[in-house]
Amino acid sequence: MLKTNVGSTDRILRVVLGAGLLIWFFFDNGSGPWHYAKLIGLVPLLTGLMSSCPLYSLFGINTCPMKR
Fold first, then answer.
1. 36: which residues sit within 8 A by CB, 6+ positions away?
2. What is the pTM assigned to this prediction?
3. From 19, 22, 31, 36, which residue has the greatest number of CB atoms within 10 Å?
4. What residue segments make up the domains of the chain, in order of their start?
5. What Cα–Cα distance (Å) separates residue 4 from each residue in 15, 32, 35, 38?
């Protein structure tokens, strides 16, 4: 299991940003690579829901106020 390293403010921002990009993807009738680039919203959405970011672990970043 991944270590929790995403704090509550960070989580909220990630979920809102990820959900916003995905909503924009599904309701926009665009085409081309920029339309499909909005699917990157899955990454912040999933990392926000899991409270863990693999890149944070790689770089030693921790925004969670829990004791280490």
1. 25
2. 0.87
3. 22
4. 8-53
5. 16, 36, 32, 26
